[in-house]
Design a protein that fits this description.
Layout: H1 2-18, H2 22-30, E1 42-48, E2 52-57, H3 62-72, E3 76-83, H4 87-93, E4 100-102, E5 105-110, H5 132-148, E6 154-158, E7 163-168, H6 171-174, H7 178-188, H8 211-231, H9 238-245, H10 251-262, H11 272-286, H12 306-315, H13 321-325, E8 331-332, E9 347-348, H14 364-373, H15 397-429
Antiparallel strand pairs: 1-2, 1-3, 3-4, 3-8, 5-7, 6-7, 6-9
Helix pairs in contact: 1-14, 5-8, 8-12, 9-10, 10-11
Bound molecules: zinc ion (ZN).
Length: 430
């Protein structure tokens, strides 16, 4: 959409002048200044019009960041790691000792990775029929992060087009090295074999199903019929039936499913719902003690989790694990403007995740229009906290409040650490 790009470059200046939440950004990335220069050692990367990339920018203060963004007017802002020295200095002297030290644990989920299972659109497109894949992914990932890893400061952000980002800002998460991030990414990622392997998920039935997978399957179950049957109609064609049947590794069951569902005289199994219920009942019968393999009890069937494997293969989060693994990987910041759609990368209220509608997210153009319509504009955001910004009079207000709440929670959790450190220092002074 070339027009969108043109509009974007025309209006981005107004967005950065009146709406971009610099103070909140600075407050977030300073992390209460528990560590010296934490903000100043953070890498900012800018993409300018014409695909010009400027990496390793860093700023000493809120005012400096604001001034640079206003003068450069980047069409995209990413942030990377906090380094052991200021990134802008390293650029000048290219020191070997320049190393990433800390950053949020991040996750990136993109709808294009669901192209082999969604039937409604492909590539960069999304619609109301497939967005639910993102809802399920966020629910499952959030459960891992809170329940298995004990993280508390989690921000979900719409990526502006076809996916979601997750930022985990707990100190413990920020301190993770590459190995720790790799271990977490591998623990959560259950897909195996790359895009050309038909069967991507295998649960070893003899070892049993891990509790985190059981929890994930329960979450999928809440959405499965609505998403896969009502919205995706996932068993509508012969090819789709074959694709699902081929996930079954027990040949007799696989053949029974194919014979039953592809029987030309079969008139009762016309809808995806009928067909799915038939697959379920054939599978349950096959793996029960009354089935054809009655010599084995259910616990002895290696592939007894066939139905669960289908659900996971279709609906489990498909992470871009390289984004999570890399300590210095760049990720677009919240409140960026997506360069292609003009949509703002707004935080998502996890409590109202099911109601989040990506098509209702404000765009740069709708915000500019809203600003024009504000009859008595108040001052745009000042550098001191607590002033009413023009942004709070637009449809960005609820997103800004969510972001503020996320930052306040971080600060609440940091406070005991900060006080403890001060106590240490006072002990030494005495
Ligand atoms: Zn779609």
């Amino acid at each position: 959409m070339p027009d969108q790009n043109m509009d974007l470059s025309c209006h981005i200046g107004a967005y950065y002048t009146h709406l971009f939440p610099y103070s909140l950004f600075y407050q977030w990335l300073s992390y209460s200044n528990v560590e010296p220069d934490y903000f100043a050692r953070r890498e900012f990367s800018f993409t300018l019009n014409g695909d010009i990339y400027l990496r390793f920018n860093s700023f000493e203060s809120l005012a400096e960041m604001r001034k640079c963004i206003l003068s450069r007017q980047p069409i995209k802002i990413d942030i990377g790691a906090v380094y052991n020295m200021r990134p802008c200095e390293s650029r000048k002297i290219k020191l070997m000792s320049f190393q990433p030290q800390s950053r949020e644990l991040v996750f990136d989920i993109d709808m294009t990775d669901y192209d082999d299972v969604r039937t409604c659109c492909k590539g960069a497109e999304i619609c109301e029929k497939c967005w639910m894949f993102m809802v399920i992914a966020a629910r499952i990932l959030e459960a891992y992060l809170r329940e298995d890893f004990g993280f508390k400061n989690i921000l979900w952000v719409y990526s502006g087009r076809r996916g979601i980002h997750c930022w985990v800002a707990d100190e413990r998460a920020r301190r993770l090295g590459s190995d720790g991030r790799d271990a977490i990414a591998n623990f959560i990622n259950i897909f195996d074999g790359g895009q050309f392997k038909a069967k991507k998920v295998e649960i070893d039935g003899l070892k049993g199903c891990h509790p985190s997978l059981i929890r994930s399957i329960r979450i999928i179950d809440e959405y499965f019929e609505e998403l896969m049957i009502n919205r995706q109609d996932f068993l509508a064609t012969k090819e789709q039936i074959k694709m699902i049947a081929n996930l079954c590794l027990d040949k007799p069951l696989r053949e029974e499913i194919l014979e039953t569902l592809l029987n030309p005289n079969e008139t009762k199994l016309k809808t995806s719902l009928d067909r799915w219920r038939m697959i379920c009942s054939l599978s349950i019968k096959f793996y029960s003690s009354k089935g054809p393999n009655q010599l084995l009890n259910r616990n002895q069937h290696r592939h007894k989790y066939f139905l669960e494997e289908i659900k996971l293969q279709l609906c489990y989060p498909r992470l871009d694990i390289n984004v999570t693994r890399g300590l210095n990987h760049l990720l677009k910041v919240p409140f960026s403007v997506h360069p292609k759609t003009g949509r703002i990368c707004v935080p998502i209220d996890f409590e109202k995740l099911d109601q989040f509608d990506p098509f209702k997210v404000p765009t740069l153009l709708t915000l500019i229009k809203e600003m024009d319509e504000i009859s008595t504009p108040q001052e745009s955001e000042k550098l001191t906290d607590g002033t009413i910004s023009l942004a709070y009079q637009t449809s960005l207000a609820s997103s800004l409040n969510l972001f503020r709440k996320f930052i306040q929670n971080i600060e609440r959790n940091l406070r005991p650490i900060k006080l403890a450190e001060q106590d240490d220092r006072s002990t030494i002074d005495f």
